[in-house]
Amino acid sequence: MKAPTALNKRGIKVSFDGYKFDSQKEYLFYSKFVKDSGYKFDVHPAYELVAMTPIEQAKIGSARYTPDFVIYDNEGKIKHVYDVKNSLTVYGIDASAKLRFRLFAARYGIPVEAVVVRANDFKTIAQCVTKPLNEKQPLIKKDFNYSWLEATNY
Hints:
By secondary structure, this protein is α+β, with helices and mostly antiparallel strands.
């Protein structure tokens, strides 16, 4: 592992395996759970949420969302979309993040799962699906062999 490369508002950036992680927690999620999971994955792929829209004599720019990790099933379909957070509270998931999660789920048909990395597992909750954040109980997982529907806590 290379030494951390830069300090920014969100923490220390980490370069590893040709990826640049925005934080130590993202790197830990990758190294502990994603890298050797056996699933195909993408790190920081960009998704268009809203296309550029012309109005009168101007344009409204497009909006994009870049999740931290996307995990694919064996058929190449999206299985999980993860955004690594420091906590699953309103302090860890602000209003702008919730809006991006909502727009992503509406456009792509799968919710974003906020994830908090722990020593030997991770906590996750699917965002913007029916129940408010404070009524959900997070799932505690060690791998990706579950459906995001479990993370909605029905």
